[in-house]
Design brief:
Mean pLDDT of chain B: 88
Number of domains of chain A: 2
Radius of gyration of chain B: 18 Å
Shape of chain A: elongated
Distance between the termini of chain B: 21 Å
Strand order of the largest sheet of chain B: 6-7-8-3-9-10
Structural class of chain B: alpha/beta
Oligomer: heterodimer
Number of helices of chain A: 13
Largest sheet of chain A: 6 strands, mixed, barrel
CATH topology of chain B: Rossmann fold
Order of helices and strands of chain B: HEEEHEEHEHHHEHEHEE
Low-confidence stretches of chain A: none
CATH superfamily of chain B: P-loop containing nucleotide triphosphate hydrolases
Number of helices of chain B: 8
Shape of chain B: globular
CATH class of chain B: Alpha Beta
C-alpha cells in the first residue's frame, strides 16, 4: 500500500508543479537559512581559532599601556627595555623564550615594484615562540642578530607583490630607504582573526630596526613562550609582578602594561562566535517553522480544492487510511523535496559567502542531516492535520462539492 | 425478466438470489424537529445481470437509494444485503473495500481527475487494488478499448469531449470487472446523440459482460434502454416496470 501511496503522492506533486514549488518555498528558505548560518558560524569560529592558534599557543603577549578600554589622558607609558626581556627570560620559571619586538611601517621596493608593509624587528626567539616555517631560505644567524645586519625575511604577501611569487632569495630590496639582503621567505599564514594580513610583513634583526628606524632600544612588544608544563596564568602573574617591580608601580596603582594570553582570547572569541551562531540559527529555525506552517496552509487549501478528487478516490474504493496516507506522504515528500533544494541552495550560498568572508568552506554533514530530518518531521507534523481532514470527508458530500 | 438479449444463465442466477436486496429501508436526515425522512420503507430486489433505470422527481428518494446501493451511505433502518452481505453492519472502510471489489461508479459530471491522462484515470481503481504496473496498464488499455478510446489513452480530460470523458469514466468503472455498475444520470451533461452512444455502451456492457447496471435518469428515452424501471415517489417505490423490448425508443 505504501508504494501505491507514494506513487500517487509523487504524481500529484508532479501534476501541480508551481503549487508544489510555492508550497516548498518556505522549507527551502528555512533549511537553506539554518544550514547556511550554522555552516558559516562554524567556518568563522574555525577561522578565528586557526588565526589565533597561528599566533601560537602558550604565548603571552606583553605590551606597554593599559588593556582595552582603559585609555585616556596621562603620559604615554614607557616602552620596555631590552633588560626587561632578559629579566623575564632569566628570572621567571616556565618561560621558554622571549621574543622582543620593535617595528614600524615602511615601503619595500624591488625593481620598480613597491609595497607598503609592516617592518618587524625581532630575534630568532620569535620563530621559536610561535613556530613559523620558511618556504625557502633561512632564519637569522647569531652574528646577524648581534651586529644588526641588514638582512630580511619576507612574508608571502610581500613576496607576491614585489616578486610576483618568484623566489626573492639572494636579491637586495630596499625598505624604508635602506637596502637589505633577502635571506628567507615565510610560509603563508592567511588572515588574522581581526582582518589583518599576517603575511604582509618584513622581518629584520631587532638591532637593525632599532638602529636604522626606531632610533632607540625600546621594545613595543614582547612575546613570551610558556612551557607546556607550566600554567599560563601563573607565569602571567609572575611576569606582572616582575614588570611592576621593574617599572616601579607600587601599592594600588594600575599596571601601565598589559599581558594577553592568546589561549584566553581564543576561548573568548570562540565563545562569542558560537553564541552568535546559535542566535542566528535560532532565528533561521523560526523561518523553518514558518515554512512548515506554509505547508500546512497549502495542504489545507489543497484538501478543499481537491475535495471532489478525494470523493472520487473514496467512491472507487480508497479506504480512509489510504487517503490520509496519500496526503501525509504528499506533505512529507514536499517538505523533504524542499529540504533537499534548501540544502543545495545552502551549499551555493555558503560557497559564495565563504569566498566573500575569506573563511574556509567546511561541509558539515551533521547540520545537513539534521536540517533534512527536521524538514521531514515538519512534513509529518504539519501534513497530518490536513491529511486527517481529507480522510474524514464523506464521499457523498465530497463528490457533490463544487 | 425474460429478454431478447440477456443470457439464460444470468436470468436463472438472478431468479435464485438477487444480488441486491433492500428490505424496509428507511433513511432519516437530521434529528428532532428538523428531521427529514428521505426513504420511508423501500423494498427492492435487483437480479444479477439486470439493467435497472431508477426514475422519479427530485426529492423522491432515488439519489438516497443510489447512495445506499453504492455503499456510500447506510440506511437508518431496514436491511441492505449485497451478495448476501449486510452492508448496514459494515463500517466505513469495510464498505470502501466492498466498493473497490464489486462496484463501479459513473457520475453525471464525469468526475475524472484533471491533468491526468485517460489511461491514468482508468488505472486509478487498480492502483487501490494493488495491481502490478504491467497488469494495471494492460487492464486499463483493455477497458479503454472496450469504450472505443484506446487511441486516446494519453489525453487529459481537458483534451476530450464530454462524450469521450464519460466513456473514460465508464472504462474506469468497469476496469475492475465489477458486479454492479452504478450510473447517476450518466447522460445528464450530454446531447442526445452522445447520450444514445453512452446508453448503447452501457447496454452492451450489460449484455456482453453481464454487469448489473443501475442507472438514475430523468429521461424516458434513456430509461427505455433498461430492462427494469423503478419509479420513486415521496420516499417510496411507486412501481416497477419490466420492459421486454429494450431500447426500442432509441432504435
Amino acid at each position: 500500500m505504501f508504494g501505491t501511496t507514494l506513487s500517487l503522492a509523487l504524481r500529484s506533486i508532479a501534476r501541480h508543479k508551481l503549487r508544489s514549488f510555492l508550497t516548498t518555498l518556505g522549507i527551502i528558505i528555512g533549511v537553506a537559512a539554518v544550514v547556511t548560518m550554522v555552516t558559516l558560524g562554524k567556518a568563522t569560529t574555525a577561522a578565528v581559532q586557526k588565526s589565533i592558534s597561528s599566533l601560537g599557543t602558550n604565548i603571552l603577549q606583553v605590551r606597554p599601556g593599559q588593556g582595552f578600554g582603559r585609555g585616556g589622558g596621562g603620559p604615554r607609558p614607557p616602552d620596555f627595555k631590552p633588560q626587561d626581556a632578559i629579566a623575564i627570560r632569566d628570572q621567571i620559571a616556565g618561560v621558554t623564550a622571549v621574543a622582543a619586538q620593535a617595528g614600524t611601517t615602511a615601503t619595500a621596493i624591488y625593481e620598480g615594484a613597491n609595497w607598503s608593509t609592516t617592518l618587524n624587528g625581532t630575534t630568532n626567539a620569535y620563530f621559536q615562540v610561535q613556530p613559523w616555517p620558511l618556504t625557502e631560505g633561512r632564519y637569522f644567524t647569531p652574528a646577524e642578530e648581534a651586529a644588526g645586519k641588514s638582512v630580511c625575511i619576507i612574508g608571502n604577501t610581500v613576496n607576491t607583490n614585489l616578486y610576483r611569487g618568484g623566489s626573492p632569495l639572494g636579491t637586495r630590496m630596499r625598505i624604508g630607504g635602506i637596502s637589505c639582503d633577502v635571506i628567507g621567505r615565510l610560509s603563508a599564514r592567511g588572515q588574522a582573526g581581526f582582518g589583518g594580513d599576517q603575511d604582509d610583513v618584513v622581518i629584520m634583526p631587532l638591532k637593525a630596526v632599532q638602529r636604522r628606524f626606531t632610533g632607540s632600544t625600546d621594545l613595543k612588544l614582547m612575546l613570551v613562550g610558556v612551557d607546556q608544563a607550566y600554567a599560563t596564568s601563573a607565569v602571567q602573574a609572575s611576569i606582572e609582578d616582575l614588570l611592576r617591580e621593574r617599572r616601579n608601580i607600587t601599592g594600588g596603582k594600575d599596571d601601565d602594561f598589559n599581558i594577553f594570553d592568546t589561549a584566553q582570547i581564543s576561548a573568548t572569541l570562540t565563545q562569542s562566535t558560537t553564541l552568535l551562531t546559535g542566535i542566528v540559527t535560532a532565528v533561521a529555525g523560526i523561518s523553518l517553522v514558518v515554512g512548515g506552517i506554509g505547508i500546512m496552509n497549502i495542504m489545507l487549501v489543497s484538501v478543499t480544492e481537491r475535495t471532489r478528487e478525494i470523493g472520487i478516490r473514496l467512491a472507487i474504493g480508497a479506504v480512509a487510511g489510504e487517503v490520509l496516507l496519500q496526503f501525509l506522504v504528499e506533505a512529507i515528500a514536499l517538505s523533504m523535496l524542499g529540504g533537499v533544494i534548501g540544502l543545495v541552495v545552502a551549499q551555493v550560498a555558503v560557497l559564495s559567502l565563504t569566498g566573500v568572508m575569506k573563511v574556509d568552506y567546511l561541509f558539515d554533514p551533521q547540520i545537513n542531516m539534521i536540517a533534512f530530518a527536521i524538514s521531514a518531521v515538519i512534513g509529518v507534523v504539519f501534513g497530518y492535520f490536513p491529511a486527517r481532514r481529507a480522510a474524514a470527508l464523506n464521499p457523498i458530500d465530497a463528490l457533490r462539492h463544487e | 425478466m425474460a429478454s431478447n438479449s440477456a443470457s439464460p444463465a444470468v436470468s436463472e442466477a438472478a431468479a435464485v438470489a438477487p444480488i441486491i436486496s433492500l428490505r424496509d429501508v428507511t433513511k432519516r436526515y437530521g434529528d428532532g424537529a428538523t428531521a427529514f425522512l428521505a426513504l420511508k420503507g423501500i423494498d427492492l430486489d435487483i437480479a444479477q445481470g439486470d439493467f435497472v433505470a431508477v426514475m422519479g422527481a427530485s426529492g423522491s428518494g432515488k439519489s438516497t437509494t443510489m447512495n445506499i446501493l453504492g455503499c456510500l451511505d447506510v440506511p437508518t433502518g431496514g436491511t441492505f444485503a449485497f451478495k448476501g452481505v449486510h452492508v448496514e453492519t459494515l463500517d466505513r472502510d469495510q464498505r470502501a473495500l466492498l466498493r473497490r471489489k464489486y462496484l463501479g461508479f459513473v457520475f453525471q459530471g464525469f468526475n475524472l481527475l484533471a491533468r491526468t491522462t485517460a489511461l491514468e484515470n482508468v488505472e486509478l481503481p487498480l492502483l487501490y487494488r494493488g495491481d502490478a504496473k504491467g497488469a494495471r496498464r494492460a487492464a486499463a488499455m483493455a477497458a479503454l478499448d472496450k469504450v472505443g478510446l484506446a487511441n486516446w489513452w494519453d489525453h487529459t480530460p481537458a483534451e476530450l469531449s464530454g462524450g469521450q470523458q464519460q466513456r473514460v469514466a465508464i472504462a474506469r468503472a468497469i476496469v475492475t470487472s465489477p458486479a454492479v455498475l452504478l450510473a447517476d444520470e450518466p447522460t445528464g451533461n450530454l446531447d442526445s446523440e452522445r447520450s444514445v452512444e453512452i446508453m448503447e455502451l452501457l447496454a452492451g456492457l450489460n449484455r456482453d459482460s453481464g454487469i448489473t447496471v443501475i442507472m438514475v435518469t430523468h429521461e424516458p428515452d434513456m430509461a427505455a434502454f433498461a430492462r427494469t424501471i423503478v419509479h420513486f415517489k415521496d420516499g417510496l417505490v411507486e412501481r416497477i416496470d419490466t420492459q421486454h423490448h429494450q431500447g426500442e425508443v432509441a432504435l
